[in-house]
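Give me the fold.
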Amino acid sequence: MPKVTKQKTQAVWRRRLADIALSILATPLNLLAIVLRLMWSTRRVRLASVALLIALAATALFRFAPFQPAADYVQAQAYRLSGEAGFRIDDITVEGRVRTQKADLAKAVQLQLKTPIFAIDLDDVHARVQQLPWVGETVVTRRLPNILHISIREREPFALYRDESSLMLIDDTGAKITGNHLLKFAHLPTFLGDGSRVRAADLMRTLRAYPVIRNRLVAAEWVGQRRWTLQLDHGGAVHLPDGDIATALDRLMELERDRRILAIENQAIDLRLPDRILLRPEGQRSSQTSETKRVEAS
């Protein structure tokens, strides 16, 4: 290749690289120019922008205690100006509310329309909404210029929990939801005993493989911090061992297929012994063996 042609080619590539570099450097500058142009496009937006800059400056400059009153005053005036420019609450939208009462939610939010939207403490609103009984998760956001949006994921009713003094609805994590208006949830199983709330979901997952028992379950008691006793809908009970529940229930299902023992009313089925199943009238202690029947494990 002639020397002149090679030099021309190198010059062309240098110009191209320079153009690319200028384009890369110009992009953020162009974006900044667009933002500034938008900020100063109308009087109201200019007013709001200046107010917010003042609020930020006040927050940064007056952090020391002696300057706090001045900072608070400047910040309040800045929020007022931004509100007058249109950055204020004209609507509060809610997503995901089903069982939470409107009045309870409004009381928790504690905001009035026309409040400057930048003056709202989102964390404070979130904390108050999160304390409502049915609320599991909350997200609170500003939708500028004038909407506050609250997204809620409510707790799902899972079971009832009875302690010494009350009956409560709980979710699948064991968290208490409410003790009011429980009649509509009477079909759910009731859990009793210290520690039963946090173990309820594990038990119900285990019972999915045993629908004959799960469908008849009305209550489950966590006994002695180590094992379950299941109360059935016909007055019977199933005493589970303190370990390897699945093996014990498998033995019970074999006996159920042969003798239909789960259909017998007011009968206690004791699965705590590994080599046999004890059958006796419900309410009779296992030590009272006069009416206790033993079924040897196969």
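The chain is about 40% helix and 20% strand.
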